[in-house]
Amino acid sequence: MLIPTILCGGAGSRLWPLSRDEYPKQLLPLAGEETMLQGTIRRLEGFACPDVILSPSPIVVCNEDHRFVVAQQLREAGSAGASIILEPQGRNTAPALTVAALSAEENGGDSLLLVMPADHLVKNREAFHQAVERGIAPALSGAVVTFGIVPDWPETGYGYIQADQDSPLAEETFPILRFVEKPDFTTAESYLATGDYCWNSGMFLVRAETWLKVMEQLQPSMLAACRAAFFRGRRDLDFHRLDSESFSECPADSIDYAVMENLRALADPTIRGVMVALDAGWSDVGAWDAVWRISEKDEEGNAASGDVLLENSQDSLVISTSRLVSCVGIDLLAVIETPDAVLVADMDKVQDVKKIVASLKAKERREGTAHRKVFRPWGWYDSLAQGDGVRVNRMLVNPGAMTSLQVHRHRSEHWIVVRGVAAVTLGREILLLTENQFTFIPAGEKHRVENPGQPPLEIIEVQFGASLGEEDTLRLEDRYGRAESVLTSAGSKAILETVETGEAGIHCHETH
Questions:
Q1: What residues are paired with 272 via a beta bridge?
Q2: Tens digits of per-residue pLDDT, 23-56?
Q3: Inter-CA distances, 217 with 100, 221, 268, 399, Å
Q4: What's the pLDDT tens digit per position in 412-443?
Q5: Tens of pLDDT along 249-277?
Q6: Mean pLDDT in the chain?
Q7: How many alpha carbons fall within 13 Å on the CB side of residue 466?
Q8: CB 88 within 8 A of CB 67
Q9: Which fold has domain 2-283?
């Protein structure tokens, strides 16, 4: 059985302001209408090999904060039966692959895991299928197979793999001699001149049993922590939630550093590193210059998306998401507009965008981690305006979905239905509101909203109060299993105590 194994962690900070911690690049449509995650899932459509059966149920390892968006995107891509493993915190790729191997071992014995980061692009699907098929025989025999990208230019932003071209194992399949770090330009040019080097793709093919055996020998403490986190974990709706305390003790390391660079130290001759050369239009879409390269361009070399007007401009990337963006006389620039932030960067300096993100986080600015529009399992909300003691949100509730039953201590809310039908729980009452109707939710009143119809429900919400943040929100009931985590916070306990004592001054509203 060949199981697609998708590693869906990472923040993609070099693609700010579109990619942010709470909604990173793998969840964005950067290379077409599908998101990067959906493109990764669909990459194996049509794959057929006589030696293996392709599993219809991929394994996806993701951050627990992204679980509902990941699940929704998988459903839209036709992978509703995926096994989704939730990481309480990121520990890099080696632990992520290890918990995936434990899941495969528990659910079906030994299987081949095709490991793919969720934020890469592969344009030539047929060529990718051929490369995977070449890697199956060595992987079944016990090798850890990686895919080396045939380089197009002397890229300094990727690591490289040196293959033993003099001792091929099969067509485009070679033993690995060594991994090398990101080189300077002159060194990268020399790598391309030899023909022995490929870019390190971060994609792998390995038996679950082999991977766990390798981890036992090379990283026993990491394996022990992953075992504890997996088997002490619990089912949560359609997810497998790793045990947070156990996983926090797991060393953080990449597959390359933890395993691939140390395979030669193993005494077992059947376990070795093998590289399959891959020439399939691959990109890790790591920064804005990579997005420009993979995008369609006009006669002047510009790639534009959204409401964009260009005049006398060349070789630039301009993306608008919410308003008109006009550029005159620009050259080799990336201009990225979002509702709450705009980036203008020299295309040769886009790797430094992560420094802007680090500066925003150091200043504790929300733009460094979250968008103005925030997605929830029931839909989303967009903060349209905020002032002293007041905030205006636009909410969208999906058909059949409902918000939490909540209470707030320091704020009240007005809800105006813009589109659809709203079933509003207000204390012990249930109100049915249609377009152009509204209700007032005083502080201290329990409430929720449900969309009982088929069209999306849109609401304009106006909040008034001394506290408009998450710390003043208590979920009492939640269809999506989120109430328990909120009840543990100190702020929520204070709200709960106030509710139980019957004091006035609390209010209820879905946590956005």
A1: none
A2: 999 999 998 899 999 999 999 999 999 989 999 9
A3: 18, 10, 10, 51
A4: 999 999 999 999 999 999 999 999 999 999 99
A5: 999 999 999 999 999 888 788 889 999 99
A6: 92
A7: 5
A8: no
A9: Spore Coat Polysaccharide Biosynthesis Protein SpsA; Chain A (3.90.550)
CA distance 471 to 491: 5
Amino acid at 371: H
Cβ-contact 63, 87 below 8 angstroms: yes
Q: Residues 6 or more apart from 194 whose CB is under 8 A from it?
A: none
> H or E stretch including 69?
helix 67-76
How far apart CA 14 and CA 181 sit, in angstroms, is: 19
The CA distance from 446 to 423, in Å, is 14
DSSP secondary-structure letter at 347?
G
Distance (Å, whole) CA 84 – CA 489 = 26
254: tokens are 């990449």
Helices (H), 124-176: 125-140
Q: Which tokens sit at 440?
A: 């007032």
Q: Distance between CA 67 and CA 88 in Å, rounded?
A: 11
Inform me whether the pLDDT recorded for 508 exceeds 50. Answer: no
Contact 8, 65 (CB under 8 A): no
Structurally, at CATH architecture level, domain 373-501 sits in Sandwich (2.60)
In whole angstroms, what is the distance from residue 365 CA to residue 252 CA? 27
Domain ranges of the chain: 2-283, 288-362, 373-501
Token pair for 51? 């030696």
Q: Please report, as a single letter, which amino acid is at residue 203.
A: M
Structure tokens given for 185: 């330009």
Residue 494 pLDDT = 52
Region for 291 from its dihedrals, namely left if φ exceeds 0, alpha if ψ lies in -120 to 50, beta otherwise: alpha
